[in-house]
Amino acid sequence: MPVGRVREKVLYGIGKKRGKTHRYTKIRWAVAILSTAAVAALPVFDVLRFDFWGGRHVVLGEVVSLPEAAKAFAWPFLAVNIVIILASRTIGRYLCGFACPYGAMTRLREWLRFDSKEPGRRVLAEALMFLTSLFLSAVVFSFWVDWRVFLEGGTLAKALSTVFLLGMVGGLHGLVRFLGMGFCRGWCPSGVYFAVLGPDTLNGIEFVHEENCTDCGACDKACPVDLHPREMSGGAHRGGIGFYGSGMSNFANCLRCGDCVNACEGMTDRFGKPTPLRMGWLPEGARDSQETAVAGPAAAEDEGGEQVA
After folding, report:
1. Any idea what the CATH number is for the domain that residue 252 is in?
2. Structural contact between residues 137 and 172, judged by C-beta atoms closer than 8 angstroms
3. Could you tell me the pTM of the whole model?
4. Last residue of a domain, one of 190, 208, 242
5. With contact defined as beta carbons under 8 Å apart, do 214 and 267 qualify?
6. Do 211 and 184 share a structural domain?
7. Same domain, 76 and 178
8. Model confidence over 187-225: pLDDT tens digits?
9. Strands 62-64, 57-59: pairing kind
10. Tens digit of pLDDT for each residue in 49-63?
């Protein structure tokens, strides 16, 4: 199942039919904007930033030595990682689904560029992606290098800073442009880290009202990482892709983005019955069947010995 045009067509069509923004999209953009703004505020307001050009490292408005700045950075960094570990073990990869700026960029590009009746949307999508890549790269750059390097630095310093900044812009824009959600599906190191941390989480996708399912397959087509949402508990593993091994459970691979629930609601709301798919805390039974699902790579093989996608 391709990740790309099919997924875009399903989500764009459902969104257009619904006529309003889905609640998960609103939450996703709010979290992404707030978290990005919080990180950007650190160097802008001299809360914490390094300067590997001029050596003017700053902590809470005071210029300090590199070891002092590193110490000030280490403790919050450690605390955030402890929270990430606990969250991933408990509720899964919600950071991937709702807080990742790359994911937000990719989703924006998907939405903007789809409508073939408005070719200008594609140009707008590429322009916005470039500007967003530039902004995020500038945030990272300002955390490590003082912008005054471009005015006061020597030739080598300016050249290295330019390569650093443009390399980030080009790399980020290239990932969004050519890989899109395919990067999340197989190649994101952070995603692998979160997946390893949370293979048996207490929160995720559940197929609760099977009798209301129309078997339209919209949930499968909407999934950005090629899972089968209706088979999350006790279902087949997704085969290994990129950095992800074939032994990882469906729950470990799931981004918790809610796209499958969005698609399911869009296809079944008109019947006035409970939506077959839900995302949230899992009952004890679902967790038990999940344990069966993570028995190992052999559980993902069919009778012919081939991996089930």
Report:
1. 3.30.70
2. yes
3. 0.83
4. 190
5. yes
6. no
7. yes
8. 999 999 999 888 878 888 999 989 999 999 999 999 999
9. antiparallel
10. 999 999 999 999 999
